Amino acid sequence: MTSSTSPAGAVRRASAVGLALAACVTASSALATASAAASPATDRGTNSATATTGTDAATATATATGVGLDRYYRQNLAWGSCVTGPDDTVGRELDEVGAQCADATVPLDYTKPDGRTITVAMSRLKATDTRHRIGAMLLNFGGPGGTAIDTPPLMRKAMKNVGARYDIIGFDPRFVGRSTPLDCGWPTGILFRSAGPDRAGFDRQVAFQKDLADKCRATNASVLPHVTTRNTARDMDVIRGALGERKISYLGYSYGTYLGTVYSQMFPGRYDRMVLDGAISPQDYGPGLLRDATSENEQALADWATWAATRDATYHVGRTRDQVLATVDRVTEAASRRPLTIGTGSDTYRVDASHVPLLLFMMLSDDSDASRAELGAAVFVLSEAAKGKPTRPSPAFISNLRHVLTGDNSPTGSVQTAILCGDRAAPRNPESYWRDVERSRAAHPRFGPMTENITPCAFWDRPREEPTQVRRDVPALIVAATGDPRTTYRSSVKLHRELPSSKLITLTGANRHGIYGDYGNACVDDQVNRYLATGKLPATDRTCAKRTTGRQD
Q: What angle do CA 310, 312, 315 make, to 5 degrees?
């Protein structure tokens, strides 16, 4: 995937099926000053039922006593050029704006701090307004499995005047991007598929998903148990310590909101300002997280169909909303009879009924005219292919096809799956998925067979730790759009209730995932930047409205 030019573009890249994110400590005197801040933090953020058993108990003991972890918290970070090679465009762009990069060393297994180590890659834009410096802010742009190393310049621009007061830190979570990699050698970049129209299609999905799980187990069995959000949160606290910070601020989008919540529960008192955009409640997070967004995606597709119908002269997919949706259904029906041929030459792809809903889904996280136009062009191409006509898909659609159907030499799908499956166990009986798929057809015929379908998590080894539950209040600022088709508004409201001291900014009328900093809604951006500048949450929850035309300013 290519580098984005905007913060929310990074959100969309990192979560294509979306679920869609300090001072240099090099001198001994600085280490002495920061020793209290850099000491290993206690890991007491889970419920008491899990905090005293199994791996979690061992980890809690290690972090509480500091056994073996001091060297990680007190490590010197060797900040330098971000360029890793002659073709590293992202690194050159970071260098050009004055960013620096470093790798933090962390244990693969926090219960064995003297064992194997891995690295977590970071980039940093240091505060330029040092007189009014607030501290370090870590970024996560979702996925799970999304990178953030390229995002500090984007966020400094989004933060306007307050950006100069922070050391802005982008980091690639463990096994993501420039950090120690994990690659299962998958033939796809995304785990999700539709079950298709019948039992035979579902049975093919069972075999396909099991094969994906088997490939990961065969290539990375020793690593998979440690690819979890809780371990990423532990890595974040090591970064905090290595930066010499008593507390860190945090901005997370999509899955990044779950990561931020987990960090706040595991390391209370170690965070300062926390913004969670497109937030998800931990109760809703897991391998089946897309199920809760089925209705929102059906609505987003219907809203897009209304938009496309007024532009039939351009897209030729129908003059009314119902006609446009009928075109979508004809494409799916044709793909269920035989795969559609899309593209030419080396960029020729065969798209069947398991792929069509996913390809639509991938383009529904943004209701801007530009994104809707991309979907309009893609549906036209699919419609022409369904008629057996030659097609010329756009470069953006080709990129999506390549990612879904080949993996595009990207391990994103492997890492995303490893995190989801490593965080929470999934049902293991294929028949339970088949029953859910069949039940979904009546209410959600387009997306239900995809969101209810089986995934590799059904064949994954069970997680070693219980899922994190919210036991501590957090005064976070939550941002949510009422029509978010990835992490639903309902889930954001639920997290708001779970964190009574939080405040919620609601954007009405938008089918959009990821708002702050790119959607152009001045009401949202001003509220977030005011909080980042002052540390004071709004006195009450706030509501902002989407403008009907132009950018949201």
A: 125
pTM over 0.70: yes
State the alpha helices, DSSP H only, in 318-411. Answer: 321-337, 356-362, 369-386, 395-406
What six digits make up the tokens of 345?
A: 């030459």
pLDDT digits (tens, 9 = 90+) for 234-275: 999 999 999 999 999 999 999 999 999 999 999 999 999 999
Q: Give me the chain's average pLDDT, please.
A: 89
Nearest-angstrom CA–CA distance, 288 and 195: 14
Where helices occur in 15-168 by DSSP H, the ranges are 28-38, 48-51, 54-65, 70-73, 89-96, 152-158
Round to whole Å and give the CA distance between 447 and 328. 12
3-state secondary structure of 324: helix
Q: Which residue has the tokens 């953030």?
A: 148
Closest-CA residue to 211 (of 454, 381, 5, 433) = 454
Cβ(77)–Cβ(243) under 8 Å? yes
Which 3-state string (H, E, C) describes 198-216?
CHHHHHHHHHHHHHHHHHH
Scored b (16 or more CB within 10 A) or e, 106-133 reads: bbbbbbebeeeebbbbbbbbbbeeeeeb
User: Which stretch of DSSP H or E encloses residue 27?
Assistant: none
Q: Measure the CA–CA gap between 366 and 520, rounded to whole angstroms.
A: 13
CA–CA dist 291, 342 (Å, integer)? 29
Helix count and strand count (H, E) for the chain = 21, 11
410 pLDDT band, cuts 50/70/90, is confident
Angle between helices 321-337 and 294-309 (to 10 degrees): 120
- pLDDT band for position 66 (cuts 50, 70, 90): low
